[in-house]
Amino acid sequence: MKKFLSLVIILVFAMAFVTGCGGESDKAGGSGEVEIKIGIEEPLSGAQAPLGNAECNAIKMAVEMINEKGGVMGKYPISYVTADTQSDPSIGSSEAERLITTKGVPVLFGSYSSAIAASVSEVAERNKVVLWEMSGAADDLLTKGYQWSFRNEAMASSWGAESVNFILANDAAIQEKLGKSAKELKIAIIHEDGPYGTAVAEGNAATAQKNGMNVVINEAYSAKAVDLSSIIMKLKAAQPDVLLITSYVNDGILFNRQAKELGFKVPVLITHSGGHSVQAFVDGVGDDANFLLTVDPVPCNPNTAGYSEENVELFKEFDQRWTEKYGSHPYHHVEMRQFAQTMLFFNQIAPAAIEKSGAFTAESVAEAIRNIKVDAKDSLMGTAVEFSTPEKPFVDPWLGNSHVGQNIKARAFINQYFDKELSCVWPKEFANKEAVLFLPASQPLAGTN
User: Fold this and answer.
1) Over pLDDT 90: what percentage of the chain?
2) SS3 224
3) Between the CA of residue 412 and those of 45, 216, 406, what are the distances in Å?
4) Can you tell me the distance from the alpha carbon of 404 to that of 394, in angstroms, rounded to the nearest whole number?
5) Beta strand pairing status for 373-374 and 385-386?
6) Same domain, 362 and 341
7) What CA–CA distance (Å, rounded) separates 273 from 155?
8) pLDDT surpassing 60 at residue 295
9) Residue 143 domain-assigned (yes or no)
10) Among the listed residues 387, 383, 390, the one whose alpha carbon sits nearest the alpha carbon of residue 406
C-alpha cells in the first residue's frame, strides 16, 4: 500500500512538472486555456434604464454571436458579469470596484452616462484595469492623463462641431430657401447641463464662433427639469434659423411636447444623439420624431458599401436577430455602437492581446489598444481606429484640449428619422437616404423664418 501511495505521489508531481513547464502550451495556439472575462456596467434601472438595457443587450448579443463560433479566435469563449449602476455615478463606482475585486475582471465595458463613465474611470485607473468606454462621450473623461481608460467613439465636442459643419456644407440650399448664407443664420444652442450636454454645446459654440456665425442663445438646463417653458419662450423671442439641442430621453420628450404647445417654430432643428437617438424617444413622441436630424457617433442604418464583406454580413445578422427578438430594427446609436464596439474589441483587440502575450489581462489588452490600427471598413463604427497615448496625446481642433486614450480617427455622423426609423444621411459614403435639411410642413415644429 505504501509503495502504491508513493507511486501515485511521484506521478502527480511528474504531471505537475510537465504542465508547469509546458512553454508554448499557455500561449495562443497552444493547448493551454485563455480565460476571457469582462465586466459590463450599465444603468439597468433608474432614469437611464431604457438606454442602459439597450446597450447591455447589444453587448450580450455580440458576445452570443462570437461564442456560437467558438469564441475569440474561434477557440476562447467569452464570459461576462453584469452590474447595474442604477443611473448613479456613485453606485457605478462601487459596482466597478466590486467587479474588479470580487469578480476579477480585467476589462470593464460601459457606461452609457458620461458622469458614470468618469467615476468608473477613476476606479479603473486606481486598480490598473482597462475601461473600454463605449458611450460616455464627454470630453473631460480623457483629459486627466489616465492610462487605463480608452474611448473608441468620437468625443462629445466633435458632435457639436459636426452639426455646425453640416449646416455650413449646405450653404447653397440655405441661400435658396432662406435667402441668406449659412454664416448669416441665427443659431440657438440649448443643452442639458451635465458633462455630456455641456461638451456638445461647447463644440457647437466654438465651431460657430470660428466661422463667424451669430449665436443668439446658448443656455443650459437640468435634464431633471419638469418644465422647459421659460427656455422655449426665449427661443420664440429670438426666432433662430437653426436650433441645436442636446438632451436625454425625458427632457427631449418634454421639450418636444412643450414646444408644440407653445407654438415654437424653427426651419432647421438638429439634435445630438443622447435621448433623441433611441427607441424610447420615438415611443414618447411618435410621428413627431420624423425628419429630426441627430448627430451620432455611429452611422445608423448605413449604406454598407463602405464595410468589409465580413462586416456587411455581421450587420445583416445583427439587424435580423435584434428585430426578431425586440420587435424593432437596431437603428439607434445605443444598440448599434455597443454591438459595433464589442465586435471590434473581440475580433481585433483581444486577438492582438492574446497573440502578443498568450493571455487576456488588463496589461495585454491595454498594450493591444495602444498599438492597434484598424481600417474604417473593418469597424462597424464607420471609422478607422488608432488611439492616442500618454506619449502622443490627441489635441482636439475644436476646444484645444489634450486627450489620452482617445481614438483619434473617430468622427460623428448625421442620421435622420424617416417613418420613425433612423437612417444615415451624412457623410455621403455612409448615407442611406438623402438628408432633408429643413423641417417639412408635416413636422409640428417646422418654421420658415
Assistant:
1) 91
2) coil
3) 28, 25, 14
4) 7
5) antiparallel
6) yes
7) 12
8) yes
9) no
10) 387
Range of the domain at 419: 157-302+414-430
- Name the residue among 117, 96, 93, 87 with its Cα closest to residue 223: 87
Residue 85 and residue 223 in one domain: no
Strand ranges for 378-420 from DSSP E: 385-386, 394-395, 402-403, 413-418
Residue 296 has what pLDDT? 97
Same domain, 242 and 179: yes
- What pLDDT does 274 receive? 86
Return phi, psi of residue 396, to 5°: -70, 145
Stretch 203-232: mean pLDDT: 97
DSSP string, 280-326: HHHHHHGGGGTT-EEEESS-SS--GGGS-HHHHHHHHHHHHHHHHHH
State the first-to-last Cα distance of the chain, in angstroms, to the nearest integer: 100
**Residue 319 buriedness (CB in 10 A; 0-12 / 13-18 / 19+):** middle
- For the CA atoms of 50, 341, 367, 356, the dihedral, rounded to the nearest 10 degrees, stands at 130
DSSP summary character for residue 395: E
Q: Structurally, how many domains does the chain consist of?
A: 2
Q: What pLDDT, in 10s, does the model give residues 7-57?
A: 333 333 333 333 333 333 233 333 358 999 999 999 999 989 989 999 999
- pLDDT of the residue at 32: 54
**Cell numbers at residue 119, please?**
467615476
Nearest in space to 370 (alpha carbons), one of 411, 406, 409: 406
Bridge partners for 82 per DSSP: 40
For residue 200, the domain's CATH number is 3.40.50.2300
